[in-house]
Write a structure and sequence with these properties.
312 residues, alpha/beta, 5-stranded parallel sheet, two-stranded parallel sheet, 8 helices
Amino acid sequence: MQIRKKYIFMTLFASWLLLFFFGGDQLRRLAFLSRRKTDALKSWPRWTDTTLLQSFAGPGDLQDDGGARQPSPKARRATRMSIYKNSRCRMETCFDFSKCEKYGFKVFVYPAERGDPVSESYFKIITALEESRYYTSNPEEACLFVLNLDTLDRDHLSVQYVHNINEKIQGFPLWNDGRNHLIFNLYSGTWPNYTEDLGFDIGQAILAKASFYMERFRPGFDISIPLFSKDHPQKGGERGWLAQSSLPPKKKYLLVFKGKRYLTGIGSDTRNALHHIHNGKDIISLTTCKHGKDWEKHKDARCDKDNTDYEK
């Protein structure tokens, strides 16, 4: 019995020595790596991480992504509800189909208000509607109504911003809280903290808008449209490049972006992080630092070259 206990004891002692000398180092290393991995997961990603961005943007170029300045979910909901009071609108609840039964799908465009400026882009939209087969000059026949007030640019710092829209639309006999109306918008809010605020109450109107926030888009009711420039042709244009069974399309450029870089504020970290995709061949990304009155205060080492390339 004593011999058996001694044998078991010696076996356990030998196993422990083997584990200590040959496996201890591996276990310590595994624990160390696991701890490092856990620490990395806790802190990644951050746009100010030099190991991620050192090849195309320095930490000094980027806005800190600390969460202190982010609005709380409650604040975001309050903002959303103040802007979209009819956030539950759907075609079944905020659109009167009876107006479409007698004459079909007809669109009435409000007569132009004297003294209200209309941008080139909005003029193209209005002209396209008035020249279409759906247009009617008689509001009694209309199924859909479109304002002749330019609502494309709702940045109150813009020269194309139309003031006092709320007062004007409330005076329209056909407005009816926006029911069966369609409103177009390309830009909303202003730098640096862009919001969805259009500066007037859209009521029950359908919103055709570029750069929608997903949480504010009303499915089956609102319309997401691309952001187009004032140079976009009203009609026609060159033929497309995508031919049948031609993938990828036979086109010189795969991706093109041209716009402001935003040295600070919302959008600055994203556009800085995407700077490196520009290769000057099939991927073109051109940005300018000239934004706002004090852009030169935030000017970085890339600005002069970026501005020159942008203006070519």
